[in-house]
């Protein structure tokens, strides 16, 4: 993705390219109350819908467990969360609009039950979510015009990861300059046209990777940006039976594949199915790889940015209006008071 008119005519590209500055300038303040609540409860539940939950919550949980945090984490969509006993959890809901119907429904239920540890994360002030939550944090990224959420997803994820850093007594701020530069590089690096063409011509675009939200979020973005069918294959799922229904005209994009599985990927998918396999990784995966910078525990943001870049190239190759899908809406299911 380049800073040229055929890209910058789309709000989607402009908003993606705003992300490095948002990361660089990110600050986390007024969190004393929620940090104390998390420490006391020892349990944290993330909820929300679509992009406001997938990467922000799963990235935070994966990072926290890698660092050995002695806290119970969970995440579900709001309707399923409404079937759980969350009385012992601190509950955090993210909704850019602050008026996502399912979020409002869950928080109304929790508020009426007297739950005091419910917190909100939104991109707008004076919302229905803010009325219901004990405390609501407002993102700095501002309004998004494109239907596909991008810069807000990155800031939501950074908020959660930095918040848990505060719970551990660590500071994320010292890493943000390096991360911002790496994300900008991933957004603007040149994509091999043969990779773009193969993905644009695919029947189904599969994404595989860890359950940290990156591959799953890119699966959703594929629908919104390229209008093509996609599927998320968690962990090593791609090697455990789904090859039976894969076709040579499908493609699979691995996010940082496990080294121990590279030989099996070649044998099962490249040779067995005859499909094209690509990777987004900080190291060569043995098949065509979009190589990014490794920035430690924040590399997931760089992976996501490289995926955005790739999907924009595919969308433009297919001559799609990146900002205006036919059916998808900015607020998927809006609460109307």
Summary of the model, kept short:
The protein has two domains: 5-175, Rossmann fold (3-Layer(aba) Sandwich), CATH 3.40.50; 180-317, Glucose-6-phosphate isomerase like protein, domain 1 (Rossmann fold, 3-Layer(aba) Sandwich). The chain contains 13 helices and ten strands. It has helices spanning 5-8, 11-24, 32-41, 54-66, 78-81, 101-112, 128-132, 151-168, 176-188, 193-200, 214-226, 262-273, 299-317, and strands at residues 43-48, 72-75, 90-94, 118-122, 135-138, 204-209, 229-234, 251-255, 276-281, 289-291.
Detailed description of the structure:
With 337 residues, the chain is α/β, with parallel strands linked by helices. The protein has two domains: 5-175, Rossmann fold, CATH 3.40.50; 180-317, 3-Layer(aba) Sandwich (Rossmann fold). It is built from 13 helices and ten strands. The chain has helices spanning 5-8, 11-24, 32-41, 54-66, 78-81, 101-112, 128-132, 151-168, 176-188, 193-200, 214-226, 262-273, 299-317; strands at 43-48, 72-75, 90-94, 118-122, 135-138, 204-209, 229-234, 251-255, 276-281, 289-291. Strand 8 (251-255), helix 12 (262-273) and strand 9 (276-281) form a beta-alpha-beta unit. Helix 2 runs parallel beside helix 8 (151-168) and helix 10 (193-200) packs across helix 13. The protein is globular and about 55 Å long.
